[in-house]
């Protein structure tokens, strides 16, 4: 399972057990840490997720910024609170890629706004799975 953290909304995506398909889910409104933890933990249970991947929003030159530090802090809190491993995945340009993908499928602006967070989470998860497969082959 992957999440794309935003200040107000959190995109969510899951993969099937064989990690072949990735599906964006309905986004989560970000209210409080306890609410986010409860909702993410419930989704992990519902989808029998074996790991949580969190998008790491680095700047284009790879430097950390406030959003990246927030993601690292939240990842550490999830590590302390969940029974699954938690990973960080570079999410540079995923929002632009998600918007492009949605628009290429004919999504209207209102639909793009509603789905972009979880579509970004799906890209983060696909990238993570691809990198894990490359590491296993090496």
Task: Give the key terms.
globular, Nucleotidyltransferase, domain 5, 6 strands, alpha/beta, 138 residues
Short account of what is shown:
This protein is α/β, with parallel strands linked by helices and 138 residues long. The protein has four helices and six strands.
Commentary on this structure:
The chain is α/β, with parallel strands linked by helices and 138 residues long. The chain has one domain: YqgF/RNase H-like domain (Nucleotidyltransferase, domain 5), CATH 3.30.420. It has four helices and six strands; from the N terminus they run ββββαβαβαα. Strands 1, 2, 3, 4, 5 and 6 form a six-stranded mixed beta sheet that branches. A hairpin with a 3-residue loop joins strand 1 and strand 2. 32% of the residues are buried.
Backbone structural class: alpha/beta
- What is the correct CATH architecture? 2-Layer Sandwich
Radius of gyration: 14 Å
Number of spatially distinct domains = 1
Shape: globular
Largest sheet: 6 strands, mixed
Distance between the termini: 24 Å
Question: What's the CATH class label?
Answer: Alpha Beta
Query: What is the overall pLDDT average?
Result: 94
The string of secondary-structure elements, in order, is EEEEHEHEHH
Number of E-type strands: 6
**What helical percentage do the residues reach?**
40-55%
CATH superfamily membership: YqgF/RNase H-like domain
